[in-house]
Specification:
By secondary structure, the protein is of the alpha/beta class. It has two domains: 119 residues, Aspartate Aminotransferase, domain 1 (Alpha-Beta Complex); 249 residues, Aspartate Aminotransferase, domain 2, CATH 3.40.640.10. It contains 13 helices and twelve strands. Helix 7 links the parallel strand 5 and strand 6. The site of pyridoxal-5'-phosphate has 12 residues, from helix 4.
Length: 388
């Protein structure tokens, strides 16, 4: 648990928080002085040396090791990719759909997950969506869909549009018992609590740096369980995926023995400089402190909202980071909140409010006040909160 001075010290690292209540980390994390300095450092290296590729490649490898440590993996299990979609596509391109054809995913996946695997229909994939019941997807629905024909189960950690947290601990063993692989998309949660891919027992893990990892867009990571790497050869590839990218041999295709084989071309060096500082900052604060703070704020908001009679799409037991309320006009409500200095977002009929370690109970009170003033834009009632 962070003390009040510690929390204030963290907040002082994010200049945006002097003027705004920032509840949109589900879209983009706030910019810290640390991340800004990372970008400056990149610019300085460019100014000073012109083309210091040796330094930049070193930094790119350091980012790989740093992220591997962050998720409990080893550096050779991590690919650095420009976006989460690129990581998903690389794996999809490496799989074949002859013996097993089924891709089983919940309907709460981020759309890109659907698009990536639906595009594989051309290569024989058969995509089956697991239906939700209200705002949750019961594990039994996965149980019914996953069978011996299932090749892979893509699984979102937290749903971007209602804050539903997938039952990773239940779905992973179900998939594995049927011989299927699991790809965890943790973009809506990575950076809010400690992660360990080994404990989670997933085969693939994707996330990017721009949300709760507090970094910029244009950088993402793909973890591939070591035992699988050699058996997967993506057809989306490039020179940075080769065993020796600097062999410069156009006639030789020799994929790296490590997860680097899931990469393509030149890495996003400025983003690497910046993103590393974001991850470092989270590690300094401590991921247990981050998750504690987020849980506190999430509970406080859900409790306050219940008193107002708001209908949450997110379960009342949620540990965060995303809380979503059902609205009559979510876009208009986002505008109203913006007029009060509160930054958040909407998806369909849901108002999305997301917490990070830099948020406070003061933020919760402020947002509840504006919600109370705008009850006409929200759905209210005594309906049971779905997904509880
Ligand atoms: C859960 C989730 N997965 C994937 C993405 C998209 O990732 P990218 O744009 O890096 O491909 C997002 C973006 O919001 C997301 O929330």
């Amino acid at each position: 648990m962070l003390s009040s001075p510690e929390l204030q010290a963290i907040r002082s690292r994010f200049p945006l928080l002097r003027n705004k209540i920032y509840l949109n980390s589900c879209s983009q994390g706030a910019l810290s002085d640390a991340v800004e300095n990372g970008l400056r450092e990149y610019v300085a290296s460019w100014h000073e040396h012109g083309s210091p590729w040796d330094i930049w490649v070193e930094r790119y490898e350091a980012a790989r090791s740093q992220f591997a440590g962050f998720i409990g993996a080893t550096a050779d299990e991590v690919a650095i990719v420009p976006c989460a979609s690129a990581g998903m596509n690389s794996i999809a391109s490496a799989l074949t759909f002859d013996r097993r054809r089924k891709v089983v995913m919940g309907e709460f996946e981020f759309p890109t997950m659907g698009h990536v695997w639906l595009a594989q229909q051309k290569r024989g994939a058969q995509v089956e969506f697991v239906s939700a019941v209200g705002n949750s997807i019961p594990t039994e629905n996965y149980e019914r869909a996953i069978d011996r024909q299932t090749l892979i189960v893509p699984l979102t950690g937290v749903c971007f549009m209602n804050g539903f947290r997938s039952a990773v601990r239940e779905v992973v063993p179900l998939a594995h018992a049927n011989g299927a692989l699991v790809m965890l998309d943790d973009y809506q949660d990575c950076g809010t609590r400690p992660v360990n891919v080994r404990t989670a027992d997933v085969d693939f893990y994707v996330t990017g740096t721009l949300k709760y990892l507090l970094g910029p867009p244009g950088l993402a990571f793909l973890y591939v369980r070591k035992e699988l790497i050699a058996s997967l050869q993506p057809t989306i590839t490039g020179w940075f995926a080769q065993r020796n990218p600097f062999a410069f041999d156009v006639k030789c295709f020799d994929p790296a023995p490590s997860a680097r084989r899931f990469e393509e071309g030149s890495p996003a060096v400025p983003n690497i400089y910046a993103a590393m500082r974001g991850i470092e900052l989270l590690q300094e604060i401590g991921l247990d402190n981050v998750s504690w703070q987020i849980h506190e704020l999430t509970s406080a908001l859900l409790k306050g909202a219940q008193k107002l009679g708001l209908i949450a799409k997110t379960p009342t037991t949620s540990v965060g980071p995303l809380v979503v309320f059902q609205c009559k006009d979510a876009a208009r409500l986002v505008e109203k909140l913006a007029a009060n200095g509160i930054v958040c977002s909407s998806r369909h009929d849901g108002l999305r409010l997301s917490f990070h370690v830099y948020n406070t109970l003061e933020d919760v009170r402020a947002v509840l006040q504006v919600l109370e003033q705008n009850l006409d834009l929200l759905v209210t009632g005594t309906a049971a909160v779905s997904g509880d």
